[in-house]
Structures are given as C-alpha cells and as structure tokens.
Amino acid sequence: MLECLPEEFEGGMRVKKYTSITKTTPLTASRDLSDLVQKGVMQSHGKGRGVFYTLSAIST
User: Fold this and answer.
1) Residue percentage of the chain with pLDDT more than 90
2) What Rg do the C-alpha atoms of the chain give, in angstroms?
3) Which of 13, 18, 24, 42 measures 20 to 30 Å from 56, CA to CA?
C-alpha cells in the first residue's frame, strides 16, 4: 500500500480506496485497516461510514 501511495493519502485512507488498491473485498479491507490501527501503523478517525484512516507517526 505504501509503495502505491508513498505520500500522505489525500482525504485519508478509506475502505473503498483500500479495496481498489489491494483488489480485496470491503470486509477484508475493513479487517486489514483495523489490524493496522491495532498495530499502531494507522489511526482511525470518525465512525461508521465516515471513518477514514491516516498514517501514524512512526519513528525509524
């Protein structure tokens, strides 16, 4: 995902955008994004259909 969009995601990452990048189902996309939030890679903002995700500040 980061190789496809190395810059900050315009408008954040949404399930629909993730499905188009990864060619997966919306359910799998939602699970993947939730997993990334739990791992601290991304942060979620909003609720329900309005939820979007942004990259967390990760120190290297």
Assistant:
1) 53
2) 11
3) 24
pLDDT digits (tens, 9 = 90+) for 22-50: 999 999 999 999 999 999 989 999 998 89
46 CB contacts (<8 Å, ≥6 apart)?
A: 52
Query: CA 44, CA 55: separation in Å to the nearest integer?
Result: 9
Separation of alpha carbons 29 and 20, rounded Å: 10
Residue type, 17: K
Residue 23 carries which side chain, given as an amino acid letter? K
Q: Taking phi first (over 0 means left), then psi (-120 to 50 degrees means alpha), and beta for anything else, what does residue 36 get?
A: alpha
